[in-house]
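User:
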Amino acid sequence: MQTPAYAAITLGSNSFNMLVATTVAGKPRVEAKYKRKVRLAEGIGCDGMLSEGVMQRGLECLGMFAEMLAKHHIAAENVAVVATATLRAIANADEFKSRALPILGVPIDVICGMREAELIYRGMVATTAGEGRRLVIDIGGASTEFIVGDGEKLLFKTSLPMGCVTFKKQFFTDLPLQERDFDDAKTEVHRILGPAEAELKRLGWHTVVGASGTVQSVVELLAHRGESQLITLEVLERLKGEILLHEDASLDGINGLCPERAPTFAAGIAVLLALFRLLGLENLALSGGALREGVLLELSQRIESAH
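Assistant: Predicted structure:
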């Protein structure tokens, strides 16, 4: 008997995503993808509250998702909605959740950082070929997850408060950007990593896999230029140099950079550069999937067992 269509919705600090899938041969097959750069973390005020304007931006995106759920005839019981760092942090998260409920008809599950790391790893394993011990780095809008695993076995996971949207607000608002902005970001990454830095080095890895928009934006840019899509320190240093040549925030002279990704590009590059130097990374490849694929996988298994 065929399982019905289902949808995994992830509300990140930078992007909101929705995957629509059906199960084919025991595995989720994605039928449609929807995404919007909501940049929720931009709206966090000094009082820890999410601004009304940015909250509205998020709710409007959920309205679009609701229309797509109706279009694909997906029942509420076949939808999973998961939120991450910004909704973990803001003081008015309950207000956002209560206003979102009538729009989606499904409650939002605000997951902890450790649970997020676990789902990211599951999503990566399900979609990314490779063997041996892997270090997975997912740079989000307001948090970054680090996971070390061997195959299905998870050896280490942590979620730390640094991301491309929060770092943009902290270090990359004064134009033109300068070398010291990148230096300040590196100092902060080192501070936030804390004991995790030594633990990651102790465990070691054979390969490094990166998930999220920051890594995706670099890979898209390299592909556009016809270059190898493996990210190296040399690639990142070159991109930093290109960023520093620009006087304005649009970065429109950077060949291959999608305009939608430009606002958080410098901050994302700064976090990546800091991690390459602090952890001694040689190269990093893009993951086939991460959080949303992990949520989709769990949802498919739940629906499968119910049938």
